[in-house]
Amino acid sequence: MLDTIDRNILRTLQADGRITYQELAANSGISPSACFDRLRKLREQGYVKGIVALLDPTLLNRALLVFIEVHLDRTTNNVFEQFADAMKGMPEIIECHMVAGGFDYLLKVRVADMAAYRRFLGDSLTTMPGVRETRTYAVLEEVKASTAIPI
């Protein structure tokens, strides 16, 4: 069970993953050694999965953000496993979610531009066994993009 101090540590880390133990401890009202111990426990318990840098996709030639609905031709465990394994090997796909509803998977894809997306779609995604149909939604404007989980 998380207490107030643990929650504060997690909120602070989400805002600034590069914060020092001293700053994190001061922000949480505990000593640096107590902060180190709490953070170690939070990692061991799986609350903190990693600390990453958030990069600018435009500067890295990945300006186009696209969401794709994927409809599979069969919904069997074997097809799901094959599809999921294939998704893990495609660097353009930054998120892949199996969903309930009118389609099987929702993909979040980052590519350079529409030409790069067309190549990805034609050369990679639609050639995969099991893919029956896709629907593409190109993002015109990112209104909100956050990695923070409300705590």
TrEMBL record:
- Keyword Transcription set for record: yes
Q: Which GO terms describe its biological process?
A: regulation of DNA-templated transcription; response to amino acid
Keyword entries, A-Z: Activator, DNA-binding, Transcription, Transcription regulation
Q: Which residues form the HTH asnC-type domain?
A: 2-63
A Gene Ontology CC term for this entry?
cytosol
Please name the SMART domains in this protein's record.
HTH_ASNC
Name it. Answer: Winged helix-turn-helix transcriptional regulator
- Origin organism is Sandaracinobacter neustonicus
